[in-house]
What we know:
Layout lengths: L1 H16 L21 E3 L9 E9 L2 E9 L3 E3 L18 E6 L2 E2 L5 E7 L2 H14 L10 E12 L3 E14 L4 E6 L23 E5 L5 E3 L22 E5 L25 H8 L4 E6 L2 E6 L3 E3 L4 E3 L4 E11 L2 E13 L4 E7 L14 H9 L2 E2 L6 H5 L2 E10 L4 E12 L5 E9 L10 E2 L3 E9 L2 E12 L6 E10 L12 E14 L4 E11 L7 H4 L7 E6 L2 E6 L3 E5 L8 E5 L2 H4 L8 E6 L2 E6 L3 E3 L4 E3 L2 H4 L6 E6 L4 E6 L3 E3 L4 E3 L2 E3 L1 E2 L4 E2 L4 E4 L2 E4 L16 H4 L6 E6 L4 E6 L3 E4 L2 E4 L13 E6 L4 E6 L3 E4 L2 E4 L22 E6 L4 E6 L3 E3 L4 E3 L14 E6 L4 E6 L3 E4 L2 E4 L14 E7 L2 E6 L3 E3 L4 E3 L6 E7 L2 E7 L4 E8 L5 E7 ...
Parallel strand pairs: 18-24, 21-30
Antiparallel strand pairs: 1-7, 2-3, 3-4, 4-5, 5-11, 6-8, 7-8, 8-9, 9-10, 10-13, 11-12, 14-15, 16-17, 18-19, 19-20, 20-30, 22-23, 22-28, 23-24, 25-27, 26-27, 26-29, 27-28, 29-30, 31-32, 33-34, 35-36, 37-38, 39-40, 41-42, 43-47, 44-45, 46-47, 48-49, 50-51, 52-53, 54-55, 56-57, 58-59, 60-61, ...
Amino acid sequence: MFNMCYLxxxxxxxxxxxxxxxGIPRDLLYNYGPTEDDKVLKGYSVSSTDVxxxxxxxxxxxxxxxxxxxxxxLISFLTDIPGFVNIQxxxxxxxxxxxxxxxxxxxxxxxxxxETKNDALLKRATDRIRSAFSSGKxxxxxxxxxxTWNEVGYYNLGxxxxxxxxxVVASNGxxxxxxFIYPEGGIQWIEGANQESRLPDARAxxxxxxxxxxxxxxxxxxxxxxxxxxxxxxIGIRGVWMFHIGQxxxxxxxxxxxxxxxxxxxxxxxxxxxxxxxxxxxxxxDFETGFCCECKSGFFGNGINCLTNDxxxxxxxxxxxxxxxxxxxxxxxxxxxxxxxxxxxxxxSRVPDSIGYDMQLLHVIGGVIGWLFSRPVNNAINGYQLTGxxxxxxxxIKFLQTGQxxxxxxxxxxxxxxxxxxxxxxVQGSLPSxxxxxKLEISEYEKHYTRTSPGKMFSRMSHFFMLEGVPVQHPYxxxxxxxxxxxxxxxxxxxxxxMKITRxxxxxxxxxxxxxxxxxxxxxxxxxxxxxxxxxxxxxRHSSCVVDGDSYKCICHPGYQYILLENSTRGDAACVDVNExxxxxxxxxxxxxxxxxxxxxxxxxxxxxxxxxxxxxxEDCNVANNCSPFATCQFDTLTQKxxxxxxxxxxxxGLSCYETDSxxxxxxxxDCWCPYDFVLEGLMCLKKKTNDISSEEVNFDESCIYTGICxxxxxxxxxxxxxxxxxxxxxxxxxxxxxxxxxxxxSTDDDCTPNSVCVWSIQFNHYQCVCKEGYxxxxxxxxxxxxxxxxxxxxxQECENTCHENAHCAYDTFKKMFKCRCNLGYRGDGIHxxxxxxxxxxxxxxxxxxxxxxxKVVQGYKCKCKKSHRRMGNRCIPEETCLDDPSMCSPDAxxxxxxxxxFQCKCNEGFVGNGVTxxxxxxxxxxxxxxxxxxxxxxxTVSKEKNESRPIVMKLFQEAVGIDVDCLRGRLYWSDxxxxxxxxxxxNGSDVQIFLDTDLGSLEGLSIDWISRNIYWTDSHRDTIEVxxxxxxxxxxxxxxxxTNPRGIVVHPELGKMFWSDWNRNRPKIESSNLDGTERHIFxxxxxxxxxxxxxxxxxxxELCWADAGIHAIGCADISTSESRIVxxxxxxxxxLAITPSSYFWTDWETQKIESxxxxxxxxxxxxxxxxxxIGKLYGIVAARKECPRLTNNCAYKNGFCxxxxxxxPKGSREHNCVCANFNDEGSGSEFSCNxxx
Length: 1238
């Protein structure tokens, strides 16, 4: 140990004092492997079970007692992440990612992990933390969780390059730190080798994601330079990075070291910094003042960012702003670039129809992309070679005939993890109105970009547009300013670039709400002598020469304006500063201060607000303590934030409150009186001059009959002794100063006397001190009961049963025990709670066919169906069924008995539907399936002749997982866990719509009750099972407790049952309940249930079947008896499952194909190959049925007679419940319309 410590210190000194660029040796990683009794992931393993921590880890202020280790370069909390999700950070779950990439360990590599309390390792971690963080001055690690990825390969089966890296989380139970370690030669690849797709694997990402969405990434995360992470550091030791991840500030982020200089190396040579700055496809050149990067032959860019020559590229981003008084919010911008010949095609989607044709005039948005990727001629350079795709571009367009002006600010931030260029744009101003249905014609034109200083280019031009078919020119002027970063060590040797734009295409497609811009452009140096070589000498201060045709113009720099000087006989002029703050031509936020600067301006958020000045958000006052002295910090239940609110008598935003000098007096027939701290003068109340009385105090000496003010928990009462009205505290409250406080109130046990505890009182609805069991009260103190033979016992500290989600555990001071109690507004025994409804004897809310009667069970009045009526949903209707009225059924249906004295309509043989509507059953010679695969939804056709696979919906950054069909309407529904939405379309992929997009987490399973018109889903992020009506979208949470990792779900509409799988590695199971969430129970829990994924019902055998990745099989169980069997075994990694009358079909993560087997023999069919795995993993599969199974239930006819805003939820096969739907936040909904009927 002594030699290792000595070597470590020696290495530290060598690195600190030299420009040595290699990382730390591999043997200086924390010890790992079989010799350390590490647990291991290898081969086909993708993630660990939940690992219980002896010492909890604190992450973004949350404490976690268990953790998951995943092969793809991250450790996670709450759930494992077995698959590589091909998206840019943040992920949906809390994770620590030292190197998140598409790792494949089937051919090479292992992942080792353990929790250790080794003294030497704890000291090593503690010393490093104390030397790097001021917050760690007194920190002592008591546990380390060490995870090592040792020589792991890349997807797919790649083993020629391997990565080794390590993450160490040090914790003491109340705070935690993380250390990322990358040894010398440890990083050899940064992305999987998918070459077949337009969307490659994301480049490796390094950082952390909190459970609430906050995240932190390293500067090189997702960039080409991440492959050199072993050569850089934030503590001065190459390959070592440290972070304070535990007790971070509220709404803050992880902290980096503040006691150690990030990089002690002062040298700016290629040897010292070139490899971590230049792109891997660039060369580094040393100059006298430093180094510069230059892309190698076959690539183009600025050396820091390089792209391959002649390879098409995509650009994507968002556009916001305000045009012609129309707000634009995050419109999608997409562009496809053919770099070989300078062609660009740009589209802006979701454009409001009111300004769609007008926005054809914003072709400069496509023009900037054309400037970036113009085809260079004769060694000229285009915009990407100048900027590397990182720059700001500001355009000002003036329409000379109308006097209208628009300003377009575009911000390009470089390529993302998929090597696609990212941008955002802000547009402000007004455009001439273009007649509806009219296209624009913009002829080819040329313009010059003049480099006015290093990192700044300017262009000015005049042009015109014409309406299609109308030979009238409409002139406009454009000015462009480009700001970027040049390598200052080797200045560029040119002043002007000449750009030619041809083949302009501008069109608005009203049907799709898309504006399209197309063009071809090339860049060259001026062929003739540059006019600015002489003209530059004539330009005045704060101006630059720009080429204007064959001549030149001197143009004031941005932020300056041209004026003629007074009293000048020679016509002298100057470029003077524009005060953007005074003129209003700035984009500072309303809660920011605009600060004018010479030639520019800056924005600074006002005190109490955070942001960059362009966007400012108020800090929560409970943290910032920033309210005005005349305001209070209050919790806003609507925004779920603490905000400052001015006290009565003051006005403002709470951060600043201004005094109101006068208010109207309160008067009755005889007297007038004023609020406290005001004096009456005539009919007005004027503020007193002194402010020495607290705004929260109430003067008990003044008569409340005149002030009209009493503090909370008091009332104004007449006092016979004083002969005046006074504020008196309510029963159970005592006067403390000028407020009324609860008697015996407490917040912790420390507020109570010895031998008593602070508990919630059911009787008094507040916390109070009560004696422990075995003690009694005497003179306000708790004394031990003197009964002999009894030992002192501690009281029960919690409820024995699990309380309902709308209940809490409270102490019953009468029964001296803890029990579950329903929250305010709910009723029940605490184990089951339901919303309280105003009894009908107080509000006459019984409907037709009902009467108000006393119910002895609930000891209250309820509406009850009259005799000769029966309950149907939330209505009481005359006893009449299809047996009495056959017209209730379709002509192609029969009225059949469904239970005693009850009948239902059921479609005849050869017809399908819900009995009310029946259509002929279509006979098909082929099976069609719908499949989710990452960014695509596929339609698969299986026939004897051939199998076909084609995408019907494809969207970038989508991650489609769960899927099911509404066979009644011919629509499919799928979940997008990246966008956190449920989408819908027809079977052919047309008419894509957003079904739900609020309060959704990670939806892994969907199932549709086409009869009741409801869609059910599992949410593994929120750990809930929920339902929504397909027609009116009202929704309800059905189950929210006892779920660990819910995944697959399927419903049986006729039985009124649903089944779901729970991917709990410690206790995997399949559960069941009624479709209203009642009668929940475990359906199957046995050795045949390993890691159950998707579920499906075999309608021909009435069996529930599941795809199991744990036992590598397809299993089925009889729905009535739960008797189970294996129907297909020896499969790889099944996820989705669909069943036809003759075969089982499943998606397989390992083979990356759709597999199938025949029912009667188990013989395997030919696998179906889909799109490239780069599109994403294969998830759900469902048969695209053109007919529905011949089933029915109580909700089929008129929504079960439930209200129009209710969910009709079958409760088994004979009953149903009408549930009040939530249309906004959870818990909202009409109480009145939810009246229960018995």
